[in-house]
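User: I'm putting together a small comparison set for a docking exercise, and I want a reference complex before I start. The sequence is below, and the ligand is adenosine-5'-triphosphate. Could you produce the 3D structure with the ligand included, as C-alpha coordinates?
Assistant: Of course. I'll restate your input first, then give the C-alpha coordinates for the complex.
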Amino acid sequence: MIPPIVRESIDGVKLLLEKNELPNYAKKLPSYFQTTTGIALLAGLLLLGFALLKGVSMYIMRMTIIIMSRHIEYEQKNDIFRHYQKLGQSFYGKNYTGDLMNRISDDVSKVRLFTGPAIMYALNLSCMIILVVGLMLYTNAEITLYVLIPLPILAVTIYLVSDAMNKKSDKIQQKLSNITSFVQETFAGVHVLKSYAAEDYFASDFEKINEEYKNDNIDLVKINGVFMPVVLGLVGLSILITIYVGGNAVVDGSFSLGNIVEFIIYVNMLTWPVASLGYVTSLVQRGAASQKRIDEFMNVKPDLDEGELVITSLQNSIEFVNVFFQYPETDSWVLRDISFKIKTNTKFGIIGTTGSGKSTIAKLLVGVYRPTKGQILVDGKPIEDYNRSKLNELFGYVAQDIFLFSETLRDNILFGSANSSVEKNLSYAIRAAALDVEIANFPNGLETMLGERGITLSGGQKQRTAIARALVKKPKILLIDDGLSAVDTKTEVAIKNSLSIHSNEQTFINISHRISSVQDCEHIIFLDEGVIIEEGNHQNLLYKKGIYAELFDKQMMVAED
Ligand SMILES: Nc1ncnc2c1ncn2[C@@H]1O[C@H](COP(=O)(O)OP(=O)(O)OP(=O)(O)O)[C@@H](O)[C@H]1O
Ligand SMILES: [Mg+2]
Protein backbone atom coordinates (compact mmCIF):
# COMPACT_ATOMS: atom_id res chain seq x y z
CA MET A 1 0.00 0.00 0.00
CA ILE A 2 2.93 2.34 0.57
CA PRO A 3 3.84 3.15 -3.09
CA PRO A 4 0.29 4.11 -4.18
CA ILE A 5 0.00 6.41 -1.15
CA VAL A 6 3.23 8.16 -2.10
CA ARG A 7 2.05 8.45 -5.72
CA GLU A 8 -1.30 9.93 -4.73
CA SER A 9 0.28 12.48 -2.42
CA ILE A 10 2.88 13.62 -5.00
CA ASP A 11 0.34 13.84 -7.80
CA GLY A 12 -2.14 15.56 -5.46
CA VAL A 13 0.33 18.23 -4.34
CA LYS A 14 1.41 18.79 -7.94
CA LEU A 15 -2.21 19.21 -9.06
CA LEU A 16 -2.90 21.70 -6.29
CA LEU A 17 0.22 23.75 -7.01
CA GLU A 18 0.03 23.77 -10.82
CA LYS A 19 -3.70 23.84 -11.52
CA ASN A 20 -5.03 24.89 -8.08
CA GLU A 21 -7.34 21.84 -8.21
CA LEU A 22 -7.95 19.36 -5.38
CA PRO A 23 -7.48 15.63 -6.06
CA ASN A 24 -10.78 13.72 -5.88
CA TYR A 25 -10.14 11.98 -2.56
CA ALA A 26 -9.25 15.30 -0.85
CA LYS A 27 -12.59 16.83 -1.75
CA LYS A 28 -14.35 14.50 0.72
CA LEU A 29 -11.90 15.26 3.56
CA PRO A 30 -12.09 17.96 6.28
CA SER A 31 -10.71 21.35 5.15
CA TYR A 32 -7.37 21.11 6.97
CA PHE A 33 -6.42 18.20 4.66
CA GLN A 34 -7.15 20.34 1.60
CA THR A 35 -3.79 22.17 1.54
CA THR A 36 -0.40 20.92 0.29
CA THR A 37 0.72 20.43 3.92
CA GLY A 38 -2.53 18.60 4.67
CA ILE A 39 -2.06 16.17 1.77
CA ALA A 40 1.53 15.46 2.84
CA LEU A 41 0.44 15.05 6.46
CA LEU A 42 -2.27 12.56 5.51
CA ALA A 43 0.20 10.53 3.47
CA GLY A 44 2.65 10.61 6.38
CA LEU A 45 0.05 9.33 8.85
CA LEU A 46 -1.04 6.56 6.51
CA LEU A 47 2.57 5.49 5.89
CA LEU A 48 3.19 5.38 9.62
CA GLY A 49 0.08 3.25 10.13
CA PHE A 50 1.06 0.76 7.43
CA ALA A 51 4.64 0.59 8.69
CA LEU A 52 3.28 -0.32 12.13
CA LEU A 53 1.04 -2.99 10.61
CA LYS A 54 4.04 -4.38 8.74
CA GLY A 55 6.07 -4.50 11.95
CA VAL A 56 3.34 -6.35 13.83
CA SER A 57 2.92 -8.85 10.97
CA MET A 58 6.63 -9.50 10.82
CA TYR A 59 6.69 -10.10 14.55
CA ILE A 60 3.88 -12.64 14.28
CA MET A 61 5.58 -14.31 11.32
CA ARG A 62 8.82 -14.80 13.26
CA MET A 63 6.96 -15.93 16.36
CA THR A 64 5.28 -18.72 14.43
CA ILE A 65 7.73 -19.93 11.83
CA ILE A 66 11.06 -19.43 13.58
CA ILE A 67 9.78 -20.79 16.88
CA MET A 68 8.42 -23.83 15.07
CA SER A 69 11.84 -24.43 13.55
CA ARG A 70 13.42 -24.32 17.02
CA HIS A 71 10.99 -26.98 18.22
CA ILE A 72 11.87 -29.14 15.24
CA GLU A 73 15.58 -28.67 15.95
CA TYR A 74 15.04 -29.70 19.58
CA GLU A 75 13.18 -32.88 18.62
CA GLN A 76 15.71 -33.75 15.97
CA LYS A 77 18.67 -33.38 18.32
CA ASN A 78 16.98 -35.60 20.92
CA ASP A 79 16.16 -38.23 18.31
CA ILE A 80 19.72 -38.32 17.02
CA PHE A 81 21.21 -38.52 20.50
CA ARG A 82 18.93 -41.41 21.47
CA HIS A 83 19.72 -43.19 18.24
CA TYR A 84 23.48 -42.76 18.67
CA GLN A 85 23.24 -44.43 22.05
CA LYS A 86 21.58 -47.48 20.54
CA LEU A 87 24.24 -48.02 17.90
CA GLY A 88 26.74 -50.78 18.44
CA GLN A 89 30.50 -50.90 18.61
CA SER A 90 30.85 -51.73 14.92
CA PHE A 91 29.34 -48.32 14.12
CA TYR A 92 31.66 -46.50 16.49
CA GLY A 93 34.61 -48.43 15.14
CA LYS A 94 33.92 -47.07 11.65
CA ASN A 95 32.96 -43.45 12.33
CA TYR A 96 34.84 -40.56 13.87
CA THR A 97 33.54 -38.85 16.97
CA GLY A 98 34.00 -35.48 15.26
CA ASP A 99 31.70 -36.60 12.48
CA LEU A 100 29.05 -37.69 14.95
CA MET A 101 29.31 -34.35 16.69
CA ASN A 102 29.05 -32.42 13.44
CA ARG A 103 25.90 -34.20 12.44
CA ILE A 104 24.14 -33.51 15.70
CA SER A 105 25.20 -29.85 15.80
CA ASP A 106 26.15 -28.40 12.43
CA ASP A 107 23.87 -30.44 10.22
CA VAL A 108 20.89 -30.03 12.50
CA SER A 109 21.46 -26.25 12.40
CA LYS A 110 21.47 -26.31 8.63
CA VAL A 111 18.22 -28.26 8.57
CA ARG A 112 16.80 -25.66 10.92
CA LEU A 113 17.80 -22.90 8.50
CA PHE A 114 15.56 -24.75 6.06
CA THR A 115 12.56 -25.35 8.34
CA GLY A 116 12.77 -21.79 9.69
CA PRO A 117 14.28 -18.96 7.67
CA ALA A 118 14.08 -20.67 4.26
CA ILE A 119 10.36 -21.34 4.61
CA MET A 120 9.77 -17.88 6.03
CA TYR A 121 11.66 -16.11 3.25
CA ALA A 122 10.05 -18.29 0.61
CA LEU A 123 6.56 -17.36 1.83
CA ASN A 124 7.49 -13.74 2.23
CA LEU A 125 9.05 -13.62 -1.19
CA SER A 126 6.16 -15.29 -3.01
CA CYS A 127 3.60 -12.97 -1.39
CA MET A 128 5.74 -9.93 -2.07
CA ILE A 129 6.43 -10.77 -5.71
CA ILE A 130 2.81 -11.63 -6.47
CA LEU A 131 1.44 -8.49 -4.79
CA VAL A 132 4.06 -6.02 -5.99
CA VAL A 133 4.32 -7.28 -9.57
CA GLY A 134 0.51 -7.49 -9.69
CA LEU A 135 0.20 -3.85 -8.61
CA MET A 136 2.90 -2.79 -11.08
CA LEU A 137 1.26 -4.62 -13.98
CA TYR A 138 -2.08 -3.08 -13.04
CA THR A 139 -0.53 0.38 -13.02
CA ASN A 140 1.40 0.08 -16.28
CA ALA A 141 2.17 -3.28 -17.87
CA GLU A 142 4.65 -2.09 -20.51
CA ILE A 143 6.89 -0.11 -18.18
CA THR A 144 6.72 -2.96 -15.63
CA LEU A 145 8.24 -5.39 -18.14
CA TYR A 146 11.16 -3.04 -18.87
CA VAL A 147 11.80 -2.40 -15.21
CA LEU A 148 11.82 -6.09 -14.29
CA ILE A 149 14.45 -7.10 -16.89
CA PRO A 150 17.48 -6.82 -14.54
CA LEU A 151 15.79 -8.67 -11.65
CA PRO A 152 16.12 -12.27 -12.94
CA ILE A 153 19.78 -11.53 -13.62
CA LEU A 154 20.02 -10.33 -10.03
CA ALA A 155 18.43 -13.54 -8.73
CA VAL A 156 20.81 -15.75 -10.71
CA THR A 157 23.86 -13.69 -9.72
CA ILE A 158 22.93 -13.89 -6.08
CA TYR A 159 22.37 -17.62 -6.33
CA LEU A 160 25.81 -18.15 -7.86
CA VAL A 161 27.53 -15.84 -5.41
CA SER A 162 25.81 -17.22 -2.31
CA ASP A 163 26.55 -20.75 -3.46
CA ALA A 164 30.24 -19.87 -3.81
CA MET A 165 30.14 -18.14 -0.46
CA ASN A 166 28.50 -21.13 1.23
CA LYS A 167 31.04 -23.53 -0.20
CA LYS A 168 33.84 -21.28 1.04
CA SER A 169 32.20 -20.96 4.45
CA ASP A 170 31.94 -24.74 4.74
CA LYS A 171 35.62 -25.00 3.97
CA ILE A 172 36.39 -22.34 6.53
CA GLN A 173 34.26 -24.17 9.08
CA GLN A 174 36.29 -27.32 8.38
CA LYS A 175 39.57 -25.42 8.80
CA LEU A 176 38.29 -23.93 12.01
CA SER A 177 37.47 -27.34 13.43
CA ASN A 178 40.97 -28.49 12.41
CA ILE A 179 42.37 -25.63 14.45
CA THR A 180 40.12 -26.45 17.38
CA SER A 181 41.06 -30.14 17.43
CA PHE A 182 44.73 -29.29 17.07
CA VAL A 183 44.66 -26.86 19.98
CA GLN A 184 42.56 -29.20 22.08
CA GLU A 185 44.90 -32.14 21.51
CA THR A 186 48.04 -30.06 22.01
CA PHE A 187 46.98 -28.73 25.37
CA ALA A 188 45.43 -31.96 26.56
CA GLY A 189 48.87 -33.48 26.13
CA VAL A 190 50.86 -30.39 27.01
CA HIS A 191 53.01 -32.18 29.60
CA VAL A 192 54.17 -34.72 26.99
CA LEU A 193 54.86 -31.89 24.55
CA LYS A 194 56.97 -30.01 27.08
CA SER A 195 58.87 -33.03 28.27
CA TYR A 196 59.95 -33.69 24.65
CA ALA A 197 60.67 -29.97 24.05
CA ALA A 198 58.45 -30.15 20.98
CA GLU A 199 57.11 -26.59 21.22
CA ASP A 200 58.68 -25.32 17.97
CA TYR A 201 57.51 -28.34 16.04
CA PHE A 202 53.92 -27.85 17.20
CA ALA A 203 54.07 -24.11 16.65
CA SER A 204 55.10 -24.52 13.02
CA ASP A 205 52.37 -27.14 12.48
CA PHE A 206 49.88 -24.76 13.95
CA GLU A 207 51.09 -21.91 11.76
CA LYS A 208 50.44 -24.05 8.70
CA ILE A 209 46.79 -24.81 9.45
CA ASN A 210 46.25 -21.28 10.70
CA GLU A 211 47.62 -19.94 7.41
CA GLU A 212 45.16 -22.09 5.42
CA TYR A 213 42.37 -20.71 7.52
CA LYS A 214 43.48 -17.15 6.88
CA ASN A 215 43.77 -17.69 3.10
CA ASP A 216 40.28 -19.14 2.85
CA ASN A 217 38.91 -16.24 4.83
CA ILE A 218 40.61 -13.75 2.51
CA ASP A 219 39.02 -15.53 -0.47
CA LEU A 220 35.64 -15.18 1.20
CA VAL A 221 36.20 -11.46 1.69
CA LYS A 222 36.95 -11.16 -2.03
CA ILE A 223 33.67 -12.86 -2.98
CA ASN A 224 31.83 -10.73 -0.45
CA GLY A 225 33.52 -7.64 -1.80
CA VAL A 226 32.10 -8.03 -5.32
CA PHE A 227 28.72 -9.16 -4.05
CA MET A 228 27.25 -5.87 -2.83
CA PRO A 229 28.45 -3.73 -5.76
CA VAL A 230 26.88 -6.21 -8.20
CA VAL A 231 23.56 -6.19 -6.35
CA LEU A 232 23.51 -2.42 -6.04
CA GLY A 233 24.53 -2.05 -9.69
CA LEU A 234 21.65 -4.19 -10.91
CA VAL A 235 19.16 -2.42 -8.66
CA GLY A 236 20.50 0.90 -9.90
CA LEU A 237 19.99 -0.31 -13.48
CA SER A 238 16.32 -1.03 -12.72
CA ILE A 239 15.90 2.42 -11.27
CA LEU A 240 17.58 4.01 -14.29
CA ILE A 241 15.23 2.13 -16.61
CA THR A 242 12.27 3.27 -14.52
CA ILE A 243 13.33 6.89 -14.78
CA TYR A 244 14.18 6.72 -18.48
CA VAL A 245 11.16 4.74 -19.71
CA GLY A 246 8.86 6.36 -17.15
CA GLY A 247 10.20 9.85 -18.00
CA ASN A 248 9.38 9.33 -21.69
CA ALA A 249 5.91 8.16 -20.71
CA VAL A 250 5.43 11.25 -18.54
CA VAL A 251 6.24 13.39 -21.60
CA ASP A 252 3.60 11.38 -23.55
CA GLY A 253 1.17 11.98 -20.71
CA SER A 254 0.53 8.27 -20.04
CA PHE A 255 2.51 8.23 -16.76
CA SER A 256 2.72 10.70 -13.88
CA LEU A 257 5.58 12.01 -11.76
CA GLY A 258 4.00 10.13 -8.85
CA ASN A 259 4.10 6.93 -10.93
CA ILE A 260 7.86 7.22 -11.36
CA VAL A 261 8.43 7.55 -7.60
CA GLU A 262 5.93 4.72 -7.02
CA PHE A 263 7.86 2.42 -9.38
CA ILE A 264 11.19 3.25 -7.79
CA ILE A 265 9.73 2.18 -4.44
CA TYR A 266 8.42 -1.04 -6.05
CA VAL A 267 11.86 -1.81 -7.41
CA ASN A 268 13.35 -1.35 -3.95
CA MET A 269 10.62 -3.50 -2.43
CA LEU A 270 11.41 -6.27 -4.89
CA THR A 271 15.17 -6.16 -4.41
CA TRP A 272 15.29 -8.06 -1.12
CA PRO A 273 12.78 -10.80 -2.11
CA VAL A 274 14.53 -11.36 -5.41
CA ALA A 275 17.91 -11.34 -3.72
CA SER A 276 16.67 -13.80 -1.11
CA LEU A 277 15.50 -16.12 -3.89
CA GLY A 278 19.13 -17.05 -4.49
CA TYR A 279 19.83 -17.24 -0.78
CA VAL A 280 16.77 -19.42 -0.11
CA THR A 281 17.70 -21.78 -2.92
CA SER A 282 21.11 -22.36 -1.41
CA LEU A 283 19.60 -22.77 2.08
CA VAL A 284 17.27 -25.44 0.71
CA GLN A 285 20.13 -27.25 -1.00
CA ARG A 286 22.30 -27.17 2.09
CA GLY A 287 19.40 -28.24 4.30
CA ALA A 288 18.74 -31.18 2.02
CA ALA A 289 22.41 -32.21 1.99
CA SER A 290 22.55 -32.03 5.78
CA GLN A 291 19.33 -34.00 6.20
CA LYS A 292 20.83 -36.64 3.94
CA ARG A 293 23.93 -36.85 6.13
CA ILE A 294 21.77 -37.12 9.25
CA ASP A 295 19.63 -39.84 7.66
CA GLU A 296 22.75 -41.80 6.79
CA PHE A 297 23.37 -42.33 10.51
CA MET A 298 19.70 -42.52 11.50
CA ASN A 299 19.19 -45.41 9.06
CA VAL A 300 21.95 -47.48 10.64
CA LYS A 301 20.25 -50.29 12.51
CA PRO A 302 21.37 -50.98 16.08
CA ASP A 303 23.42 -54.11 15.48
CA LEU A 304 22.54 -56.00 18.63
CA ASP A 305 19.39 -57.96 18.21
CA GLU A 306 17.86 -58.38 21.61
CA GLY A 307 15.17 -60.62 22.94
CA GLU A 308 12.43 -60.25 25.46
CA LEU A 309 13.45 -62.55 28.31
CA VAL A 310 13.62 -60.58 31.53
CA ILE A 311 16.21 -61.67 34.06
CA THR A 312 16.37 -60.47 37.66
CA SER A 313 19.08 -62.72 39.04
CA LEU A 314 21.50 -65.35 37.82
CA GLN A 315 20.07 -68.71 38.93
CA ASN A 316 22.64 -71.16 37.62
CA SER A 317 25.47 -70.10 35.43
CA ILE A 318 26.89 -68.22 32.49
CA GLU A 319 28.45 -70.57 30.00
CA PHE A 320 30.68 -70.00 26.97
CA VAL A 321 30.20 -72.84 24.49
CA ASN A 322 32.87 -73.07 21.78
CA VAL A 323 32.99 -69.31 21.36
CA PHE A 324 35.02 -67.87 18.50
CA PHE A 325 35.36 -64.14 18.11
CA GLN A 326 36.65 -61.69 15.55
CA TYR A 327 36.42 -57.91 15.82
CA PRO A 328 34.34 -56.38 13.03
CA GLU A 329 36.46 -55.32 10.04
CA THR A 330 39.35 -57.58 11.06
CA ASP A 331 40.07 -61.09 9.97
CA SER A 332 42.05 -62.73 12.72
CA TRP A 333 40.50 -64.71 15.54
CA VAL A 334 40.86 -63.00 18.90
CA LEU A 335 39.16 -65.86 20.73
CA ARG A 336 39.23 -69.45 19.54
CA ASP A 337 37.04 -72.25 20.81
CA ILE A 338 36.55 -70.84 24.28
CA SER A 339 34.38 -72.92 26.60
CA PHE A 340 33.93 -72.39 30.34
CA LYS A 341 31.21 -72.16 32.91
CA ILE A 342 30.83 -69.51 35.60
CA LYS A 343 28.59 -70.82 38.37
CA THR A 344 26.41 -68.35 40.19
CA ASN A 345 27.74 -66.94 43.48
CA THR A 346 31.27 -68.17 42.91
CA LYS A 347 34.52 -66.42 42.13
CA PHE A 348 35.91 -66.88 38.65
CA GLY A 349 39.37 -65.77 37.61
CA ILE A 350 40.67 -64.98 34.14
CA ILE A 351 44.39 -64.57 33.78
CA GLY A 352 46.65 -64.45 30.77
CA THR A 353 49.29 -62.73 28.75
CA THR A 354 48.73 -59.26 27.38
CA GLY A 355 46.61 -59.19 24.24
CA SER A 356 45.35 -62.71 24.88
CA GLY A 357 41.67 -61.72 24.75
CA LYS A 358 40.74 -61.25 28.40
CA SER A 359 39.03 -57.88 27.94
CA THR A 360 37.29 -59.25 24.88
CA ILE A 361 35.67 -61.91 27.03
CA ALA A 362 34.46 -59.17 29.37
CA LYS A 363 32.96 -57.25 26.48
CA LEU A 364 31.18 -60.39 25.27
CA LEU A 365 29.81 -60.95 28.77
CA VAL A 366 28.21 -57.51 28.97
CA GLY A 367 26.93 -57.77 25.41
CA VAL A 368 29.02 -55.03 23.80
CA TYR A 369 29.80 -57.61 21.12
CA ARG A 370 28.24 -60.91 20.10
CA PRO A 371 30.28 -64.09 19.48
CA THR A 372 31.15 -64.65 15.84
CA LYS A 373 30.67 -68.40 16.31
CA GLY A 374 29.51 -70.43 19.28
CA GLN A 375 27.16 -69.44 22.05
CA ILE A 376 26.99 -67.72 25.38
CA LEU A 377 24.31 -69.24 27.57
CA VAL A 378 22.85 -67.39 30.53
CA ASP A 379 20.95 -69.80 32.77
CA GLY A 380 20.92 -72.18 29.83
CA LYS A 381 19.42 -69.77 27.28
CA PRO A 382 21.31 -67.87 24.56
CA ILE A 383 22.35 -64.36 25.64
CA GLU A 384 20.60 -62.90 22.57
CA ASP A 385 17.22 -63.98 23.95
CA TYR A 386 17.46 -61.61 26.91
CA ASN A 387 16.40 -58.03 27.16
CA ARG A 388 19.74 -56.30 27.09
CA SER A 389 19.20 -53.53 29.60
CA LYS A 390 17.68 -55.92 32.14
CA LEU A 391 20.59 -58.30 31.69
CA ASN A 392 23.12 -55.50 32.05
CA GLU A 393 21.47 -54.41 35.29
CA LEU A 394 22.85 -57.62 36.81
CA PHE A 395 26.39 -56.55 36.04
CA GLY A 396 28.66 -54.18 37.86
CA TYR A 397 31.39 -53.81 35.25
CA VAL A 398 34.74 -52.15 35.85
CA ALA A 399 36.26 -51.81 32.41
CA GLN A 400 40.00 -51.76 31.84
CA ASP A 401 39.99 -48.30 30.29
CA ILE A 402 38.12 -46.31 32.87
CA PHE A 403 36.18 -43.30 31.78
CA LEU A 404 35.13 -40.65 34.25
CA PHE A 405 32.89 -37.74 33.26
CA SER A 406 33.55 -34.08 34.09
CA GLU A 407 30.98 -34.17 36.84
CA THR A 408 31.12 -34.44 40.60
CA LEU A 409 32.57 -37.53 42.23
CA ARG A 410 29.07 -38.38 43.50
CA ASP A 411 27.54 -38.23 40.00
CA ASN A 412 30.38 -40.32 38.65
CA ILE A 413 29.77 -43.02 41.23
CA LEU A 414 25.97 -42.96 41.01
CA PHE A 415 26.26 -42.76 37.21
CA GLY A 416 22.92 -43.34 35.59
CA SER A 417 21.41 -45.09 38.60
CA ALA A 418 20.55 -42.15 40.80
CA ASN A 419 17.54 -43.37 42.73
CA SER A 420 17.06 -43.48 46.47
CA SER A 421 17.66 -47.23 46.87
CA VAL A 422 20.99 -46.90 45.09
CA GLU A 423 21.98 -43.76 46.99
CA LYS A 424 21.63 -45.70 50.24
CA ASN A 425 24.54 -47.86 49.10
CA LEU A 426 26.79 -44.92 48.40
CA SER A 427 28.74 -44.96 51.64
CA TYR A 428 29.08 -48.74 51.53
CA ALA A 429 30.45 -48.58 47.96
CA ILE A 430 32.93 -45.86 48.86
CA ARG A 431 34.18 -47.76 51.87
CA ALA A 432 34.39 -51.07 50.00
CA ALA A 433 36.40 -49.42 47.24
CA ALA A 434 38.73 -47.92 49.90
CA LEU A 435 38.01 -44.41 48.72
CA ASP A 436 36.72 -43.02 52.00
CA VAL A 437 39.98 -41.60 53.33
CA GLU A 438 40.75 -39.75 50.12
CA ILE A 439 37.28 -38.33 49.74
CA ALA A 440 37.55 -36.89 53.22
CA ASN A 441 40.67 -35.05 52.08
CA PHE A 442 39.13 -33.65 48.89
CA PRO A 443 38.16 -29.97 49.05
CA ASN A 444 34.44 -30.59 48.56
CA GLY A 445 34.29 -34.27 49.49
CA LEU A 446 31.83 -36.14 47.32
CA GLU A 447 30.85 -32.95 45.53
CA THR A 448 34.38 -32.43 44.18
CA MET A 449 34.35 -31.85 40.42
CA LEU A 450 36.41 -34.28 38.37
CA GLY A 451 38.11 -33.85 35.02
CA GLU A 452 38.29 -30.73 32.86
CA ARG A 453 37.82 -28.01 35.43
CA GLY A 454 37.91 -30.23 38.50
CA ILE A 455 40.66 -32.22 40.11
CA THR A 456 42.36 -35.00 38.24
CA LEU A 457 42.47 -38.32 40.00
CA SER A 458 45.49 -40.59 40.14
CA GLY A 459 45.37 -43.87 38.25
CA GLY A 460 44.57 -45.85 41.39
CA GLN A 461 41.93 -43.36 42.50
CA LYS A 462 40.28 -43.63 39.11
CA GLN A 463 40.18 -47.40 39.37
CA ARG A 464 38.65 -47.28 42.82
CA THR A 465 36.06 -44.72 41.69
CA ALA A 466 35.11 -47.14 38.93
CA ILE A 467 34.88 -49.96 41.47
CA ALA A 468 32.63 -47.83 43.68
CA ARG A 469 30.52 -47.12 40.59
CA ALA A 470 30.11 -50.84 40.02
CA LEU A 471 29.46 -51.66 43.68
CA VAL A 472 26.90 -48.95 44.34
CA LYS A 473 24.27 -50.93 42.45
CA LYS A 474 24.98 -53.99 44.63
CA PRO A 475 25.27 -55.97 41.40
CA LYS A 476 24.49 -59.68 41.20
CA ILE A 477 27.56 -60.14 39.02
CA LEU A 478 30.69 -58.13 39.63
CA LEU A 479 33.02 -58.06 36.62
CA ILE A 480 36.36 -56.36 37.16
CA ASP A 481 38.75 -56.12 34.22
CA ASP A 482 42.21 -55.40 35.53
CA GLY A 483 40.56 -53.07 38.03
CA LEU A 484 43.10 -53.42 40.78
CA SER A 485 46.29 -53.12 38.74
CA ALA A 486 47.02 -49.57 39.85
CA VAL A 487 46.45 -50.03 43.56
CA ASP A 488 49.06 -51.36 45.94
CA THR A 489 48.73 -54.90 47.25
CA LYS A 490 47.64 -53.75 50.69
CA THR A 491 44.71 -51.77 49.30
CA GLU A 492 43.93 -54.64 46.96
CA VAL A 493 43.61 -56.99 49.90
CA ALA A 494 41.42 -54.50 51.76
CA ILE A 495 39.11 -54.13 48.78
CA LYS A 496 38.91 -57.87 48.23
CA ASN A 497 38.12 -58.43 51.90
CA SER A 498 35.22 -56.02 51.75
CA LEU A 499 34.00 -57.66 48.55
CA SER A 500 34.05 -61.11 50.09
CA ILE A 501 31.38 -60.08 52.63
CA HIS A 502 28.85 -60.43 49.83
CA SER A 503 30.48 -63.41 48.19
CA ASN A 504 27.62 -65.81 48.86
CA GLU A 505 25.15 -63.59 47.07
CA GLN A 506 27.39 -62.29 44.33
CA THR A 507 29.16 -63.78 41.33
CA PHE A 508 32.61 -62.27 40.99
CA ILE A 509 34.53 -62.42 37.74
CA ASN A 510 38.03 -61.08 38.15
CA ILE A 511 40.36 -60.45 35.24
CA SER A 512 43.97 -59.79 36.07
CA HIS A 513 47.63 -60.17 35.23
CA ARG A 514 48.46 -60.95 38.83
CA ILE A 515 48.06 -64.43 40.24
CA SER A 516 47.75 -63.00 43.74
CA SER A 517 44.61 -61.29 42.52
CA VAL A 518 42.83 -64.43 41.27
CA GLN A 519 44.29 -67.20 43.42
CA ASP A 520 41.31 -67.42 45.75
CA CYS A 521 38.88 -68.03 42.87
CA GLU A 522 37.03 -71.34 42.67
CA HIS A 523 37.94 -71.59 39.00
CA ILE A 524 40.67 -69.90 36.99
CA ILE A 525 41.26 -69.96 33.25
CA PHE A 526 44.63 -69.11 31.74
CA LEU A 527 44.42 -67.49 28.34
CA ASP A 528 47.12 -67.23 25.70
CA GLU A 529 46.58 -65.85 22.20
CA GLY A 530 42.84 -66.40 22.38
CA VAL A 531 42.98 -69.98 23.62
CA ILE A 532 42.50 -71.42 27.10
CA ILE A 533 45.73 -73.24 27.81
CA GLU A 534 45.21 -74.17 31.44
CA GLU A 535 42.33 -74.13 33.88
CA GLY A 536 41.37 -75.25 37.34
CA ASN A 537 41.67 -73.88 40.85
CA HIS A 538 44.87 -72.43 42.24
CA GLN A 539 46.04 -75.65 43.89
CA ASN A 540 45.36 -77.78 40.81
CA LEU A 541 47.09 -75.34 38.55
CA LEU A 542 50.19 -75.20 40.73
CA TYR A 543 50.21 -78.96 40.86
CA LYS A 544 50.24 -79.16 37.07
CA LYS A 545 53.57 -77.29 37.06
CA GLY A 546 52.65 -75.64 33.79
CA ILE A 547 52.72 -72.05 32.67
CA TYR A 548 50.52 -70.94 35.58
CA ALA A 549 52.90 -72.39 38.13
CA GLU A 550 55.82 -70.81 36.31
CA LEU A 551 54.13 -67.41 36.34
CA PHE A 552 53.30 -67.84 40.02
CA ASP A 553 56.94 -68.49 40.87
CA LYS A 554 58.07 -65.44 38.94
CA GLN A 555 55.50 -63.18 40.55
CA MET A 556 56.31 -64.54 44.01
CA MET A 557 59.98 -63.78 43.46
CA VAL A 558 59.23 -60.22 42.40
CA ALA A 559 56.99 -59.76 45.42
CA GLU A 560 59.75 -60.95 47.76
CA ASP A 561 62.41 -58.72 46.23
N1 LIG B 1 38.22 -52.82 19.03
C1 LIG B 1 39.11 -53.68 18.54
N2 LIG B 1 39.20 -53.87 17.22
C2 LIG B 1 40.09 -54.74 16.71
N3 LIG B 1 40.93 -55.47 17.44
C3 LIG B 1 40.90 -55.34 18.77
C4 LIG B 1 39.99 -54.43 19.41
N4 LIG B 1 40.18 -54.51 20.74
C5 LIG B 1 41.14 -55.41 20.94
N5 LIG B 1 41.59 -55.93 19.77
C6 LIG B 1 42.61 -56.98 19.61
O1 LIG B 1 42.15 -58.13 20.25
C7 LIG B 1 43.20 -58.79 20.92
C8 LIG B 1 42.80 -59.07 22.37
O2 LIG B 1 42.60 -57.84 23.04
P1 LIG B 1 42.12 -57.76 24.54
O3 LIG B 1 41.92 -56.35 24.87
O4 LIG B 1 40.98 -58.68 24.75
O5 LIG B 1 43.40 -58.32 25.30
P2 LIG B 1 43.68 -58.43 26.86
O6 LIG B 1 43.93 -59.86 27.14
O7 LIG B 1 42.62 -57.76 27.64
O8 LIG B 1 45.04 -57.65 27.00
P3 LIG B 1 45.60 -56.80 28.23
O9 LIG B 1 46.10 -57.77 29.22
O10 LIG B 1 46.72 -56.02 27.65
O11 LIG B 1 44.48 -55.98 28.74
C9 LIG B 1 44.41 -57.91 20.79
O12 LIG B 1 45.26 -58.50 19.83
C10 LIG B 1 43.91 -56.60 20.30
O13 LIG B 1 44.79 -56.03 19.40
MG1 LIG C 1 42.55 -56.18 28.73
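The domain at 2-298 is CATH 1.20.1560.10 (ABC transporter transmembrane region fold). The longest strand covers residues 317-325.
User: Thanks, that's exactly what I needed.
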